[in-house]
Amino acid sequence: MTLAIAEARPAAKPAEKDTTVGNYFVSNYPPFSFWKPERVPEVAAALGRAPAPGTKLGLYLHIPFCRKRCHFCYFKVYTDKDSTAIKGYLELALQELELYAKQPFIGGRKPQFVYFGGGTPSYLSESQLQHLADRMKAILSWDEAEEVTFECEPGTLTDHKLKVIREIGVTRLSLGVENFSDHILEINGRAHRSREIRRAYHFARELEFPQINIDLIAGMVEETEENWRDCVRQTIELAPDSVTIYQMEVPYNTHIYQEMKAQGRLVAPVADWQTKRGWVRYAFAELEQAGYTVASGYTVVKDSKRTHFVYRDSLWQGADLIGLGVASFSHVGGTHFQNEHDFEPYVARLREGRLPLYRALTPTDEERLIRELALQFKLGRISRAYFQQKFGVDVLTRFAEPVARLKSQGALEVEGDWLRLTREGLLEVDKLVHEFFLPEHRTARYA
Length: 447
Ligand code: SF4
What we know:
This protein is an alpha/beta fold. It folds into 2 domains: 33-314, pyruvate-formate lyase- activating enzyme (Alpha-Beta Horseshoe), CATH 3.80.30; 364-447, Arc Repressor Mutant, subunit A (Orthogonal Bundle). The chain has helices at 41-47, 83-101, 126-139, 159-167, 182-187, 194-206, 225-238, 255-263, 273-289, 310-315, 343-351, 365-377, 384-391, 395-398, 400-408, 423-427, 429-432; strands at 57-63, 113-118, 147-152, 172-178, 211-218, 242-247, 293-294, 299-301, 320-324, 329-332, 335-339, 357-361, 381-383, 412-415, 418-421. The strands form 3 sheets. The chain has a 9-stranded mixed beta sheet. Strands 10-11-12 form a 3-stranded antiparallel beta sheet, with helices on one face. It has a 3-stranded antiparallel beta sheet with strand order 13-15-14.
């Protein structure tokens, strides 16, 4: 496949609004480049301590297999593993869970939320899924989980597989639709096509999943305004419980970046940030018109009383998370850590009977405060009382300078207990939250 950048031209200096290479989305703090292998010993101490009272526990499993690698994908995924390798991987992830389940940090807790992410969890066969869920529940029961999320690529779903996914206890089905145009899907390397989206969505509705989410990406290669408007129209027509919209970013380890490099290009062949923000602004407005409520910088929900996202909200308030699988991220008792991010070392560590840990960091109290502040700002507002009670800090005083700056830019308003982002602020929240970072973290690359 050749992207829409086939002609070699000299690299022009990018404008600020241009989409250049790098990660935009802020998913944790301090940045991952500050997590170090030499800090892995801190993990053993965290696993050996009883949990602080009231700390929630979650479980994440990374399924790193996909039918094809999308050209914008920066996740750790494999398209060449056969069923023996997949089966072996699942057994090792179960072994990893067994290692965690024996540790004192569990403290008798059961997971409050479970997340199957990837990669493509729906790439697994029905029998693999059934076996995986049975064994996971036997090791650490999730019978009390409030939410079990499962990410799907529409083209991998059959009615029978969806039935199994429902039966193992999935409550939140997340469909990676990304776009409804077959041309855009194809040119961006997606494996599914639009007819598969509709078929999978209708099967899932018949099975009465409590929540169906649709993921879209604004600004894929060759996307036009007309196409985007059509995607929003088709989404509203399907009427999912929630819609998540990402603005296209082009990290280093993507196929798109490889082509840019080969062509000597500095600007990615996708819409600029101003255009992508405009498309999300349009989508939010149309979805609001259709009765949805904006719940974060990326999501709208049809019924805000009924539709929650426990995984996101718990993690953004400091819940513990056991992350299983290659490259997965965990958090236990104040220590963050990541697994080996390549298949072979991940497998080798577990075969030796050891946890496959790669790098770790135990943030200071101030860094923990900034982490929660940055992540909760993505919901559009933060509560002063929450931070006063949890960290003993008045965020208005501690962050007086960035607050004043963002207010003067029209991005932030202060209303009683709440520091609230305006809609324009919310649309570029991942950029704005850098204002609150410690100086040494502001220029760090997110990778
Ligand atoms: S389906 Fe998702 S995880 Fe798999 S290659 Fe595409 S973007 Fe990456």
